[in-house]
Model the fold of this input.
Amino acid sequence: MGEVRKPSIGEVLVVLIAFLVVVFSFVAIYDLPIQLALFISWFIVIALGLRLGYSYADLEDGIKDGIREGLGAIFILIAVGALIGTWISGGIIGTLIYYGLAIIHPSIFLLATLIITSLTSLATGTSWGSAGTSGIAMMGIGAGFGYPLPLVAGAVLSGVYFGDKLSPLSDSTNLTASMCKIDVIEHVRSMIYLIVPAWVISGILYTVVGFTMDVGTAPEEIARVEEYMQVMQEYFVVNPAMLIPAVVVIALLILRKPPVASIAFGSLLGVIWATLFQGMNFFEALGTAYDGFAIDTGVEFIDDLLSRGGIYEMLSSIAVIMFGLGFGGLLEKIGALRVIVEKVAFLFSNQGRASIGSIIVGVMGNMFGSAMYVSLIVPPKIMQGSYDELKLKRTVLSRNSEVGGTLTSAMVPWSDNGIFMATLLGVSVFEYIPFMWLALISILLSIIYGYTGMFMWKTEEADN
Done:
């Protein structure tokens, strides 16, 4: 490899605009797979890399490095796919839906969704696993009560990301703390000052909406609830013993056992439960870990909700993640995002602007890296200089990195979280974004804190 040079801001902008044009045209105009758009985008960056003096082999190494950094997410996605398939076949999801319809009052359903998914995610440390279990159940219950599914999806996402951000078990929480060079407990304490107020405000909003929508009381809605419950009892054995696998998996994750192994063990329990309680052949039940579960009840929504899961269903999302990570690795290799930040670094001259900058860089990580892991790695690398100059503690950097990275990850249709959540919940990204109130309120609070100085802690050097 000969001498290489940094890209100019013009070159970087041309590449990023070309990327957005390709992705948008493929998805919105030509109805072509997002995976193909991301794959083609590799070669747009490779062309610039060759122009800058990199060898093709070096650029390919950048792709490999980017994918390697996100392998943890891919492993969890595989395990979650298996878990969903076997937990549906084992009657675990059906039991959750049945008891939810029987116990939860329609008026407080949205608040209950927020609380239940928050507790699940807080205990397990995984937003994906929580969405794939309690999240799916709450979507079914909400549909039974007559709630708009985008609104229910927003409450589910608010809950799963709340718990994920306060759980020391979360891989993204640990990654952020590591990138900012602070202890994970320090990071969680910093997040409390932001995410708890956002959660309380979101809870109030979901409660108010629940009481004003007048759902679950009309004769047709009561009949639908009864129909859903009857279907669950007809096609699955429903009793408290069906919830044992969920309790076991949550306990394993609380005990800080490896997430992939814990979720995979939960999948095995789902297979055993399907064999012992649901009357399935063991090998047929085992097959649902890969192929997912299919059911034909004659109730269209229930069939759509429960005919899913399996590793096979996740392969498309895995491809998106791999292509996205490779694209992010290429941008990192040629230093594209660093060039942009260097050019606008003067804008981050005060606490408020630094907060906005962290959020923007996190969003850019999701948009151009197509993965939450990229969005959590990039902001600390790029923004730490500005925070150090402002004498702000790294806990402030880590908190704002989470806001821009994790909490916006499901808002990008081609990101790993956007693809996963939209596929899982059956609601498009653009439909549920307006109802992701926890994320939207957290962004607003982060900016308010920056400009008011609230909870913007200074280093000891600045205090002296």
Remarks:
- The chain has a mean pLDDT of 90.
- Residues 72-312 form one domain.
- The chain has 24 helices and no strands.
